Amino acid sequence: MPKRKKNWMQEHVSDPFVKRANTEGWRSRASFKLIELLEKDELAQPGMVVVDLGAAPGGWSQVVSKQMQGDGLVVAVDLLEIRELPLVKVICGDFGEQKTLDAIEAELTNRGVDLVISDMAPNITGVKSVDQSRWLNLAELALDFAQNYVRRGGSIVVKCFEGEGSQEFCNSVRSVFRKVHRRKPQASRDRSSEFFIVGLNKIG
Predict the structure, then answer these.
(1) Catalytic residue (one of 159, 179, 184, 202)
(2) CA-CA distances (angstroms) from residue 174 to 48, 70, 88, 141?
(3) Which of 59, 135, 170, 195 could form a disulfide with 28 if both were Cys (CB 3.0 to 4.6 A apart)?
(4) CB of 133 closer than 8 Å to CB of 123
(5) Domain 27-202, what fold?
(6) Which pLDDT tens digit goes with each residue over 78-133?
(7) In the chain, where the domains are located
(8) What are the start-end ranges of the H helices in the chain?
(9) What is the CA radius of gyration of the chain?
(10) How confident is the model at residue 196 (pLDDT cuts 50, 70, 90)?
(11) How far apart are CA 11 and CA 5, in angstroms?
(12) Is 184 a catalytic residue?
């Protein structure tokens, strides 16, 4: 096993959030990122309609559905298959394609979306400029979806990465939501350049 991969495996196995996820039954350590983000602004309430973009393996959908206590709708969308989750509607497809949007709309049944969540990240190439461009494209797609489907007063949580274009993206979120927070949850690794944008109270 290459040294870098071996070091990553050792770190992963000893990671306290990985251990907690295994003990508490969460699908991934990323679940704790969303738990913290939701609690700060009380974003997930019973009766809400939530769309999880890039949802595989389903950890974020699992979190939000539990916080909604079975009252409401969670739609999880991803190109990859997602194991069935209680009270979550799973759609396998690219939400940038019309047929997937049609499937989402069929689940929404004309209801506005209260919250869009996106933990999407591109496959890393190791070329910083390429990786930065790819995540920015994913973030912009999530924001575009929110502009079209989130009701007035609704919210978004979207993963971002430090670097070229990140400030411009934050400004774009501010043009759509009245209040915008930049967060780095405790479960985000210190060396990671990721952070999360939380947009509250959608305009119009």
Answers:
(1) 159
(2) 23, 31, 30, 16
(3) 59
(4) no
(5) Rossmann fold (3.40.50)
(6) 999 999 998 899 999 999 899 999 999 999 999 999 999 999 987 777 787 888 88
(7) 27-202
(8) 3-14, 16-24, 31-41, 59-67, 98-108, 128-149, 166-174
(9) 17
(10) very high
(11) 10
(12) no
